[in-house]
Amino acid sequence: MRNSSTNDTGSPLFTLTGLPGLEDSQHWMFLLLGVLYTVSIVGNSLILFIVKEEQSLHQPMYYFLSLLSINDLGASLSTLPSVLATFCFHTKKITFDTCMAQMFFIHFFSFTESGILLAMSFDRYVAICNPLKYPTILTDTRVAQMSLSIGFRSFCVVFPLPFLLKRLPFCKANILSHAYCLYPDVIHLPCGDITFNSIFGLCVIISTFVLDSVLILVSYILILRSVLAIASQGERLKTLNTCVSHICAVLIFYVPMLGVSMVHRYGRYAPPYVYTLMSLVYLFVPPMLNPVIYSIKTKEIHRRLIRLFSGTKL
């Protein structure tokens, strides 16, 4: 008899998890996720449309914002198929290759978002600390080079992950903790030695999330030092206000990530659905909130949105 954890070709099958212990409430979760998906896709699409159509927004800061919106769209669409299958159609089996493909894209967009936030902090640093050199430092060519570098780095650190998992034997039930495939979740399922995989994963985290967050912190320390040197309090507040949207984007990306890590490390006695809810917040909230924050806090985008929906010129 064929093992339920493998398919006809002998390749491992994984079982996705909805909300353990809250199976009767999963239809409500699907409605909530549907709202988050809708806001994320519509909001980020509007940001891209506005930046494309508004000539005054063809600046480095808004190019990075467009890149962030594209990345958020990719992050949302990479989780959509399995979440839809799990919560709506109750189809919980996923093949190894499909799982690896989804895992690749989820982590690729996650690492890319971290790199984009770092690039945006550099943009704010140059704009505030070296405003006269801003046009010569952040040229269109430089922005394109930075964007390609961010994507290339993300690809290089994520590309080995599926192959490192493929070489390991899977002989258990292969039940995942979420409605999608994540490397920290899948890595606990193989029967073989995962020491190298764990070390490689730790190196990836340090060279991406940890390094990016430290550099973002350093850039804001330098920005704050430069702002405090401004004599006028009104000018200080005006300058800091240009960073509010980016600071919010950084917080809603890194704080849920830290929360997921804390829950996995110290929340061993927490109900199983807590792990799932924290991961949902980490993956779904940033793509939904980023366009909302930038639409509210960025005057140029806010005005264009009003013009778009009211049909009048300001």
Automatic annotation (TrEMBL):
Family: Belongs to the G-protein coupled receptor 1 family.
Annotated localization: Cell membrane; Membrane
Keyword Protein transport set for record: no
Membrane-crossing segments per the record: 28-51, 63-84, 104-122, 143-165, 199-223, 244-267, 273-294
One GO cellular component term: plasma membrane
The keyword Cell membrane appears for this protein: yes
Pfam families reported in the protein's UniProt record: 7tm_4
Topology within the bilayer: Multi-pass membrane protein
One annotated GO biological process: cellular response to lipid
Gene: LOC114042323
Gene3D superfamilies from the UniProt entry: Rhodopsin 7-helix transmembrane proteins
Keywords from the named record: Cell membrane, G-protein coupled receptor, Membrane, Olfaction, Receptor, Sensory transduction, Transducer, Transmembrane, Transmembrane helix
An example molecular function term from Gene Ontology annotations: G protein-coupled receptor activity
G-protein coupled receptors family 1 profile domain segment(s): 43-294
Protein name per Swiss-Prot or TrEMBL: Olfactory receptor
